[in-house]
Description:
Layout: E1 9-10, E2 16-17, E3 25-29, E4 32-37, E5 42-49, E6 55-57, H1 67-70, E7 79-81, E8 87-89, E9 92-95, E10 98-101, E11 111-113, E12 126-130, E13 134-141, E14 154-163, E15 166-175, E16 180-181, E17 185-190, E18 202-204, E19 208-211, E20 238-239, E21 255-261, E22 270-273, E23 279-285, E24 289-294, E25 311-316, E26 332-333, E27 339-349
Antiparallel strand pairs: 1-2, 3-4, 4-5, 5-6, 7-17, 8-11, 9-10, 12-13, 13-14, 14-15, 15-27, 16-26, 17-25, 18-20, 18-22, 19-21, 21-24, 22-23, 23-27, 24-25
Amino acid sequence: MTIPNTAPITDCNGNSIPPSAWKEYRLSAPGIRATFIPYGARLTSLQVPDRAGKWTEVNVGYADPSSYIKEAGPSYFGAVVGRVANRIRSGKFELNGKEYAITPNENGGYNTLHGGKIGYDAREWEVAQASESSVTFTLRDEGGEAWDGFPGCVDVGAAYELSDGELRATLRAVPRDGATPILLTTHGYYNLAGEGSIMGDELQLPRASRFVRGDKHLVPTGELPPTAGHALDFTAPKPIGEGRAKECGAGNEGIDNCFVFSEVSPEPQLIWHSKTSGIRLQLCTDQDAVQMYACAAKGDTVLGERGAECLAVEPQGVIDSVNHPEWGFKVVYEKGEEYVNTTTWKFDVVE
């Protein structure tokens, strides 16, 4: 008999996290099952049937939900990240003539990653609603020093809903007292066979016509080169392993890139098929880009407890666009103006 842990846990930031943060909310609908916890409004399990009808765990993470708090450093497995996801050069940006400095938490202070030292992934969210097939989490980001230096207060919500073979996530954020950059994402890692290599899986990003070129620390240089003629061209289906490129930071070869869509479309922006399991993922999103990560910096891919290779798929706005207004992507929201990120994961089986 396993006795559940009912004592607080100290996380990697030295904060005491109560057991309510890793309470599991288990959802189900025809052809899909998912589990979430309030710590990071986080997906911890996602199961769909394979070609034989066997339930397959396609989410990569930890079996014990308290492990997300215990880990030595943030993996961001399955979490909502913000206030600004991805990287900000030097952790600084200018807004309405004032420079803001956000806690730099990567590469020795070279940049901010995923909202700073204590981002949304490392916060316990409130549970606003829970049912058999849906759960909604809320968070009040008070801004200022306790929130890594972002300006103003922001109310944030993450709503998850299951339906026939589908998971829909809707992220919302509203500034309460002034302008601020907002860029959220869900930071899921996936393996459509549940284990083993993903390098032979077929991947297509039909409208990913450009990518963001990064420097040796993966911070944008300002260039948005075309994917055409490049290893990162997934506009036609090809094996994930054929997309390995030296655009993945100094000394690395793999994928850790922000792919920019030529247009926002209701049609799938990402199609991924595992010939091993037969499972296909079609991802639909209203965002301008998707960050994908399967980089050699962590031994070819991030590995979950099952030894599963995986691909991080993060639908979002464009990395560091707060420092590149010339690109024309919206990232600053005024008081009362709602930010929305809606993404649907559609699963089925194809031969």
